[in-house]
Amino acid sequence: MKKRLALICCIISCILVMAGCSFSLVKTNENFDEKVLEENTDSFVKSWFEYDFDSAVSDYADQLDDDTLALYTESGKLREKYGEYDKKEDSSFTITTDTATVNETILTSSGKKLVFSVTYDEAGNTTSWNVDKYESKGQIMGRAGLNTVMSMGIVFLVLIFIAIIIAQFKYIGNAQNKSKEAAPVVAEPQPEPVVIEEEEEDLTDDLELVAVITAAIAAAGENECTDGLIIRSIIRK
C-alpha cells in the first residue's frame, strides 16, 4: 500500500512540475502579455472595419498574392454584409512558447457577429489574421452531427452495394454452369486406320528360274521326263 501511495505521489509531482515548467516558459515571453495582446487585437479589428478592401483589391490586384487577394475580397464582402463595428462581446487567448492567438467575437451594426483570429509571433508582431462568421455551440454541434450522419450513411450505402454485388456471384456461377451444360459436346475425330498395301511379287523371273531348275533335276534323274514333277517352293540363300 505504501509503495502505491508513493508511486501516485511521484506521478502527481511530475505532472505539477511539467505544468509549472510550461507555465514559466510562457510567462518568460514579455511580448505575450494578454492585456497587450488584447489591445493590439482591438486596434486591428477597428482598423479592419475602417479599411477600404474594395479599393485595395482594384488598385493593388497585381501586387497581391492569391491568398491575400482572396482574403481581401472575402473581407470586403463580409464588411458590406455585416455592417459597421458595434462592440466586442468576448475574447480568448491561445498562447504557446513562440506564438499567440487572440480570438475576439464582435457584434456588428446588423446584429450579426464576426469572429476575428489574430496570430502573433514571439516578437509580438502580427503574422496572420482571419475573419469568419460566428457560430454558436449549438450550430457547430448540429453541423458536426449532420456531417457524421452523412458520413455514416455513405458508408452504409457502400456496404449495402458491396453486399448486393457479392450476392449476385452465385447467380453468375449458375448461369455459367447452365451455358456449359447447354453447349453440344463435339466428339473428337478418331484417327483413320493406316492401310498398308502389300506389293505384289513379280513372278516373271521366278518362272524362268523354276524352268531351269526343273530341267536340271530332270537331267540329274534317271529319266528326262518332267511330267509329274512339281516344284513347291524356291528358297534363296
Describe the structure in your own words.
Strand 1 (85-95) and strand 2 form a beta hairpin. It is built from seven helices and four strands; from the N terminus they run H-H-H-H-E-E-E-E-H-H-H. The longest helix has 31 residues, at 137-167. By secondary structure, it is an alpha+beta fold. 6% of the residues are buried.
SSE layout and pairings?
Blueprint: H1 2-27, H2 34-50, H3 53-59, H4 66-82, E1 85-95, E2 100-108, E3 113-120, E4 126-133, H5 137-167, H6 169-182, H7 204-220
Antiparallel strand pairs: 1-2, 2-3, 3-4
Helix pairs in contact: 3-4
Features:
237 residues, single chain, alpha+beta, elongated, four-stranded antiparallel beta sheet
Could you tell me the strand content as a percent range? 15-25%
Radius of gyration: 56 Å
Q: Strand pairing plus helix content: what structural class?
A: alpha+beta
Tally of alpha and pi helices: 7
Widest β-sheet, arrangement of strands: 1-2-3-4
Global shape: elongated
Q: Tell me the helix content.
A: 40-55%
Overall residue-averaged pLDDT value: 78
Q: Termini distance?
A: 123 Å
Largest sheet: 4 strands, antiparallel
Low-confidence stretches: 23-27
- DSSP, total strands: 4
